[in-house]
Each structure stands twice: as C-alpha cells, then as structure tokens.
Design goal:
heterodimer; A: 212 residues; 5-stranded parallel β-sheet; 9 strands; B: mainly alpha
Chain lengths: 212, 557
Amino acid sequence: MTASFCAPLRLEQISIALSGRELLTVNATIAPGEVLTVMGPSGSGKSTLLAYIAGFLDREFNASGGVWLGEHDLLSLPAEKRGIGLLFQDPLLFPHLSVGGNLRFGLPRHSKEKRQQVTQALEQVGLAGFEARDPTTLSGGQQSRVALMRLLLSKPHAVLLDEPFSKLDTALRQEMRALVFSQLREAGLPALLVTHDHADAGAAGGPVIELG
Amino acid sequence: MLRLPPILIIALLVLPVGSGLLMVLLPAFGYLPALGGNTFSLAPWQMLFAQPGLERSVAVSFASGLVSTAVALVIVVLFLAASRGTWLDRGIRRLVSPLLAIPHAAIAFGFAFLIAPSGLMARLISPSLTGWERPPDALIINDPWGLSLIAGLVLKEVPFLLLMSLAALPQLAPEKRLILARSLGYSPTIAWLKTVLPSLYPLIRLPVYAVIAYASSVVDMALILGPTLPPTLSVSILSWFNDPDISHRFMASAAAILQLGVTIAALLCWWLLEQLISMLTRRWLTDGSRQRGEIVLRIVGRSALLFSSITALAALVGLGLFSLAGFWRFPELLPQTLTLDHWQRSGPSLVTPLINTALIGLISTAIAAALVVATLENEHRQHIQPKRALWLLYLPLLVPQIAFLFGLIVAAESLGVRPQLVLVIAGHLLFVLPYVYLSLAETYRRLDPRWLKVARSLRVSRSAAFWRVRLPLLLAPLLTAFAVGLAVSIGQYLPTQLLGAGRVTTVTTEAVSLASGSNRRLIGVWALVQAGLPLIGFMLALGLPRLLGTHRRGLAT
C-alpha cells in the first residue's frame, strides 16, 4: 500500500464472541479525519475489537466480519502490513532508545531528511531539543506526546486509540485530547477510540457507539 | 538468627574462592613450604613456557570458550526472536529443563557416539551414501582444533542460556513491545530483535559470562571430546597436578594462574565484542528497516535450536543403544542383538558411586536450600533490595574451577582437613548454592505479600506464617530448585575428583574415568545412569506435589 492515501476505514458486520458468548457487534464506516468512539464498561470487549482490527486477537476469541481500508481487505494481511497505528494507555517508549531514536524507529526506512522530520515532530508538540534525552526522564505527558509523534511519523493509514488518556491527570488530559484529535484531523486519518470516559467521546466530536 | 545466613552465604562463596586463588598464586611463584618451596622464584613459569604445545593449548581453551558461547547465544536469541507463540516454542519450553539437567559428561559421551567414525551418524549414511564398509580412518572426536568440543559445549549451553532468557523475559513485557513495533510496520522477528533484545541482553549478561568462564576452562567435556596432543590448558593442568614429580605441582600452579588469565582474556574479548556490536547496530536499530532479513532469520532461528535439541536427545538415544548392544557390525544402523549383560556386569560396581552421588547431592542441596530460603526470608522481613551482592553469587561460576580448587585443597590441608567426603560436599555447595538461589529467588520475591498479611491478620505468628503459608505455597518452586541443585551436584566432576583425592567415587567421576578406555558399552551404561539421576530428581519435583495431594490450580509453579 502506498503511504499517501486517505481512505475510510470500514468495519463490516464485525462480531466477536468468547466461548460461545457474543461480546459485541459493530458495523460502521469511519471517514478520513473522523473519530468514531466506542464506549463501554470494562469487560465489554472494546479492546478486543481493537485487537481484531489491528491483527493481534487472542486465539480464544471467535470473530467474524470484514475490515476494509478503502478497497483493501486488511484481514488478509499480517498485523505489520495493515498500516494501522496504535496508541495505548501507556506511552511504551522503548527504554533502550533515546527520544529521537524512538521517533526514528517510527519513520519509514527510506524517508527523506529524517533528522529534520524528527526535529519538526518534537517542535510540533513543544519538545524542541529533546532528541538525545532518555525517555524515562520525561514526564508522563511528555512521553505521551512523543508516542503520538512516533505513531504519526510512521505514516499509518488509520489509528486505533485504546483509552489513551485514562492514565493522565485531569488537567493534562484536556490538553492531550486537544492535541491528539487535532493532529489526527490534520493528518486526515480515520480513527477509532475506545474509552469509558464520556468526556473523551465529547472531545472526539465524532459518532459514538455504546456497548454493553 | 535470620541475619546470619546472608553473611554465611557470602563467606561460603568468597572465602573458598579467595583462599583457593591465593594458595595457587603462592606456589605459582615457587613458594609452598609444605612442598619444599621456601623462596619466591620464576622457575615454575620458565618451566611452564618451555612446555611443548602450550600456545596451542591456550589457543584452543580461549577459542572454545568464545566460539561455543557465541554460537549458543546466537541460536537462543534467534530462536526467541523467530518462534514466539509457535508450537515449537511451547514444545521447547517443556524440554529445556530436562535438557539442562543432563550432565556435561553424559552429553559429551552421547555426542561422541553420534559423530564418531563408527558412530550413529556414519552408520545412518553408510554404506548407502558413503560406500563405507568399515569405519573411516578420520579424527572426528578429539580433533586438534577442538571443533567437536565446541559443538558439545554448544549443546549444553543452549538450554542454559534459553532458561535464563525465559526467566528474565516476563519483566520486559515483550508482548506489548512486539504489538507496538508490529503496528508500526515491523515484521515479528525484526521487531523482537530491535525492541526486546537490547533490553534482554543486560539481564542475561552475567549468565553469559559464566558460560564463557566455564567453557574456556572445562575439564570433563575436554577429556572426552577435546584435542589430545596437546589437550586444552585445563586438562594439561590436571595431569601436571597429578604428576608424581613435585616440581610439576609448582608448574601446574603457574598454569592455573595462566588459565585464570585466559578466562579473563576471553571475558575481556567478549566485552569488547559487545561494545563493537552495540556500536555497529546502533544505527540499524533506528534506521527504519522493517522487513529485511525476516525470512532468513525466521528459518535459521527455528531450525537451529530444533537441530541442537534433537542432537542432544539423539545423543541420549545413542547412549541407550550402546549400553544394550550385543553384536553390532559397522554399517548396521541398529545392533544385531540386544543384551542386558553390560548392565548386569556393571550393577555391583554401581552401588558405591550411586550411594556417594546421592549422599553428596542430597546433603549439599539441603544445606544450600536452607541457606537460600533463610536469606530470602531475611531479605523479605528486612525489606532489603537484592541487586548489590548478586554478582558475588556468580563468583564460583566466573572463576575457573581448575584455578582455585587445587589451592583450596592446599588451604584445607594446612588447616588439617584431609580430602574426604565432607570436603567434597563443601566443594559441591560452592556450585550448588548459586544455582539454587537463581532458581528460587524470583518466585520467592514475587509471591503476593498479601497472603502473609492475611495469615498475620488471622493471628498467626510470623514464623508460623512462614511454615504454614509461605512454604506450602512455594512447594513446587522449592522442589524445582532442589532438583536443580541435585542436577548441578550430580554433574560435578572436578570438585569431586580433586576434593575427594580420587577416593570418593561418584557416577560422574567413574563415567569420566572411562573416557580414556574404549569400552563403549560400559560407557553407555555409566553415562546413561549419570544422565538419568537428575531426570529422576526433576520427575519427583513435578510429581511430589500431586502425590502429597497438595496440587491445586492456584499454586505457584
């Protein structure tokens, strides 16, 4: 797949079951630049839905339905070829790499002017000059911002967000929400957010599906 | 009471190694009044460097330590990178402990039976592929370059490094790292190498160093598989020490110090390689390449470890075949007749070594287990962070056995302790203790402290909570640690041979002593007994909790 297209993410009659018990069914299309929010209590299968779309579903689950990016059938591809970026509760910056190293880890191999792209990405989130820092010396909010930029630098075709704000404190949460959603809109990426926080759904501004 | 064991453990590990080294260092420079050396001199060194073939011995020891460790580490790392979540992964995980339990000597004998000119491999392809009607006249075992020795070492080091890696991995949350890297477009094997390995290696560095130290100074395996003219440095040292000519004792001491130097040089060289590789791969980690090499690495990673495990298992089968073989003409793959003769004839002579092996193993492991549990319990009650003294545990594993055991005998003799069973048990303790500690410590620390709080809140005293809650909850890991200790003790050759002055016979010393002879049937019997004993220990460790009726699903394993 080429890096430069904006296509909708289509979830076609997805149904996930665990040992015979149906967890959820979802049928939706997410336009580029739009954020679809899936809300539900813990245990409702929100994260399982993300695992299915991204290609990491545990064997014990039974799932059916299609995942399409434009005309491409994503389910026939291994996880690493789907072009789906993930943002978790934890920033998961690699401890053996510097902040700049983490960002370069996200960049495609043959991208041009890597150094400049990394510098710009850090400037964009107010972390100019942080290239050589050890990620563990950053605050939680700073780590989340680096994780976001690492994701965007990898040029994904769609993004899945797994309660990405739940571990931040209230003030920081507002700020991160604004940052994440504006960046996603700007990049024109379809995004799927799962959360149990109504404020997240409000900030995302897109359609909402309630589970459970 | 509990404050004593940690100090005791450190003293038990540091004092013997330290005094042993000192009592080798003095005679290395000619000073040992008991043997008539009253002045310091360089004569032992001059004599040592005049020995023919010394450079060759040193080179083979140095190279076999480095090469075998490098090969084993690459096999383990690529396997972990390429096989996560596959059937192979699950199968090997079950196999790794029993494979680790098989003593070096048994693996060496079995491997020799596989690759010898008249061994199973040659029989498998003869005469169909080779046309050989009689064994070819080739020096495969005991080859002058030590290649068969290196291969034998790899077979034993792979399960050890694999087990150490598997124990360290969970704290790195490798699954999360892999999911993240794959969502960024990295294929699985590359993702593991770029995101998990850089964090894993520092955690297994000490075990790797222990492997290098062991491999560069091994005696029993080198006696069986290593070159002969000249042998490895460690084997030369052993024969010089046993030489009736007193001056050879002084030269042997100098050689023991040289061995220490060779091992340190190998460790240093490895450390430099570490730096070099880390420098060369720094760019690769973040250059964004996501797929390149995936297929090759995946194939190599899965097949190499499978191959080494199958070879080790085939070596055991070979031992079994030879121990039962009656008449067996060369190109025939299987013996024409099977017989129990060799077992029956060995029966009576097995009794004493078996009793000695059991006695030494059980007593040294029991002492080690008691000390380790007491230390861990003390650490728990005093809220002490471990870390600091950990490298001391590795001391007996990092200093070559042959470099300090002779000095230890001299030290013991000067205290009036003669080589005998007690000294052998004390010597085994040195090597059993670290392994029991390494095997138990993580599980012991991870046990949820709330269990003990619940017990205390039910008005159970602290020590009663230890006996009635902690030990039963940790029964399975305790038994496993015990089995590990037994396996280590059973496999010890040099400490038994030296500290017992050859008068305390175990199945291992008897088996290794057969190496110079050529009675393969007899070797098969003894090596199989030697390999079987640790396995019995592991089976008991797995089976006892069930037999005692305390096997429940919620217990730690």
